[in-house]
Amino acid sequence: MKRINSEDMRRLLKLYFIMGSVNCKLSPADTLSAAADGGITLFQFREKGPSALTGAALLQLGGQLREICRNYGIPFIVNDDLELAAALDADGIHVGQDDLPARLIRQRLGEHKIIGVSAHNLTEARQAIADGADYLGVGPVYPTTSKADAQAVRGTAVIEELRHNGLTIPLVGIGGITLENAPPVIQAGADGISVISAIAGAEDIRGTTRRFAQLVTAPSP
Ligand code: 3NM
Fold this sequence. Notes:
221 residues, 8-stranded parallel beta barrel, 8 strands, binds ligand 3NM, metal-binding, thiamine biosynthesis
């Protein structure tokens, strides 16, 4: 199987939902099902934090969420954990700057798996592209409470900088994105948005996801 092409990747990044059990008010399965009903295009299982599941419970939840994704035709990405991604036969993995380079991950997981890398500036973005990343996650665009070790807030400036420097790689903005502040992220040149709390913590997950999906398909001018 071949590596994903850029246009397919861009389409998948439109509305990229990320969560783990610590982010959910409902059960993770109900949260993901509602978001999938609402129109997310990609999902990342990110089980992080002091009360994160481990061992058999982690595998069990991962397997359950992967099955929901498969039923909806939504690719299932695992955050950081190469062994978990392999064990769950995930469609891809998302890694940070401190993790293995994309090149080595691809050797381990296979050519066709999606590999995303977090990048916070032009240097990191260029390196991730050289290493063979399929997409970049760029942030935090706005203040976030969902990532304990988030870097300084960057607004949309880094996204604009990457595009102005000719980087055409599929990329998604992340960090504090809400229905209100999402449009400038797309206008800055992102192919889509990545969201944890504005979807996982919403009163009406399906309805909120639908509104996000409308925004990223037709952003306001
Ligand atoms: N990565 P929310 S910010 C997982 O800047 C993650 O790389 C970030 O959660 C980065 O949508 C972030 O609730 C948290 O703000 C995003």
